[in-house]
Amino acid sequence: MTARFILASASPRRTDLLAQVGLTPAAVVPAAVDEQPLKDERPRGLARRLAEAKARAVADAYPDDAVLGADTVVAVGRRMLAKAADEAEARRFLELLSGRRHKVLGGIAVVLPGGRVLSRLVETAVRFKRLSGDDIAAYLASGEWRGKAGAYAIQGRAAAFVAAINGSYSNVVGLPLYETCGLLAGQGIVPEIADGGAND
After folding, report:
1. Domain spanning 5-185, CATH architecture
2. Domain segments of the chain: what residues?
3. Given 34, 71, 86, 200, which residue is catalytic?
4. Does residue 85 register a pLDDT over 80?
5. pLDDT value at position 198?
6. Is 71 part of the annotated catalytic residue set?
7. What is the DSSP string of 103-163?
8. pLDDT in tens, 103-129
9. Predicted confidence band of residue 3 (pLDDT cuts 50, 70, 90)
């Protein structure tokens, strides 16, 4: 019998990504965590810290299960772009990303029964084309920027902005699947294999 795990996240994208590879959490529990960076905290440290904090926040209620937490940070240099608070901030983010290379840092953490924490940090480099005023206006009007780190969704309309990507695509969507599967597999949590009858 495959071990079970709990997903500490409110993001439907992470649930969908896990389902894509045959992983279904026993429960999905949003973690109430302050996502503001600490003083002088760098993007890599923030992504890892928040992933661990989210997993720990939920683990107390599920002491017999593995709890998976994740966080995504978009960074241009040392500047971190979180979820835009409003359309004006989303516009500023897109203008900053226009024609530039940025990093998407994905932190993942698993809290095991007994409290031991395993974590990973995954970095993906993304380069946007130069965005016109019309590009930005249309994207803002779509509303797709809401609730997204960096104010864009690579799996949606913003795919047309991406000139190059180096690293994990799923990390930019919200969860680095290769590394997540590796962490979970070490705890006996493996994808469910369905018989699709492809060779019938």
Report:
1. Alpha-Beta Complex (3.90)
2. 5-185
3. 71
4. yes
5. 47
6. yes
7. EEEEEEEEEPTTS-EEEEEEEEEEEEPPPPHHHHHHHHHHTTTTT-BTT--TTTGGGGGEE
8. 999 999 999 999 999 999 999 999 999
9. confident
